[in-house]
Amino acid sequence: MAARDVDDARSAPLRALAGDMLAGLSVALVLIPQSLAYADLAGMPPVVGLYASAAPPILAAAFASSPYLQTGPVAITALLTFGALSSIAPPGSPRYVELGLALALIVGVVRIALGLLRAGWLAYLMSQPMLLGFVPAAAVLIASSQTAKALGVPAPPFTSEIADAAWALAHPAAWHPAAVAMSATTALVILGGRRLHALFPGVLVAAAIGIAVSLSGVYSAPVVASIPAGFPPFTSSTVAWTEIPALLLPGSLIALIGFTEAASISRRFASEDRTRWSANREFVSQGVANIAAAFTGGMPCGGSFSRSSVNRLSGARSRLSGAVTGCAVLAFLPLAAVLEPLPLAVLGAIVVVAVLNLLRFRPLVRIWQVSVPQALIAWGTFVATVLLAPRLDLAVLIGIGLSIAVFLWRSLQMEIDLGVDGSDLTITPRGVLWFGTAQRLDTALLDAVATHPAARRLVVDLARLGRIDMTGALVLRSVLDQARLAGLTTEVTGVPPQSRALTARVLDSEDDPIG
Fold it and tell me: Is the pTM of this model over 0.90?
């Protein structure tokens, strides 16, 4: 028994290494065709997606906190990239690619700075109602942007993704039968494969089928056509350095919004495994990945939920699996030309299927039953995202603004209950006693004393307050002073523990016992 335990202990590292190798290779098989689709979504040449899938996951693995997180091109970040750059330069143009490098650099620097400053808590600041509205709206835009491609329709004459999709769907005569068939096959393979097994490489199989059909000569719809073979170039000299100031705002927003997916994945897996996870460290890892993308011809990237799940289910044990994925893509790059016959309809269908799980509208409907103010945040963000596309940075700012406005509105809501027991008056404020609400307490006292002239004692019960700031404490002292001038004895009870020291210092009087 002892010998067997020794053998198991010796073989454990080898089993872990084998698990990481298998998992990393499994993810690479999904990532290679998927990266082409996300590059196209971002308005980039397909090879940019491959470059963003090579060095970034290798370097991210060196700093990551989660052993399962897989880094590379992702749908939401690709859409945000398109939104940030498409109004500055024509998508796919050399200048557009240079702007993408600068954007990736900004995203990387911001994330590293947040991690080093231990500001990982910022990952939790994006309010859930805002994300509840933004994510499905972004998914609608993503699916809409790929509809024409999936149907084989030439680019519609609009600048709105939704208008393009509506036009394409409304003109079935313009559909290319081969593209429609290929899109349907792709969707069937990916979705059907998931039913067969969680690890079924549906994206890879769909891409292989598409390439085989294209090479057979029976496919006449558009294909990828050109993918340069070779390792990623060093692109520090082609970064659009002069455009960095104009990209600071969208880059910072992408750094925060794009990180929410990586954070949610890592937190979920850490909870299931009962292990620790550091948002600060993950910020650094994702920042390093984006800087690597900026200097190796890539584009802004992030953590992928679907690929991280594949990684974990395939037996990954450590961060090495992410490095294996990057090395596998790097080794494939000299052979990348084999993807040139891949139908564009396959790429469009891959993206559409990938965002189906993000099209969650039931929570948007149910939130009205939970909280009207929070529903206004969610729906305001949803509408802004759809209407302001491709300027999604403005939509995000509107969502953040709505969240702040609702927070301030809630903070200004302080209810004051009045209780009368013989000659005793009891005032019970509910909410937060701060400079924005303090005057209400003063007004409530004046009204209570005027309404009950026979009162001889005032009790201010603070047990239902969340907190008290300096202005609130000073107004409370003023209220008590006014009550004593009116001939009442005073007492303060139920002071919140976190405000007890401040309240005691401000009142500082034996006439105002604190209970």
Answer: no
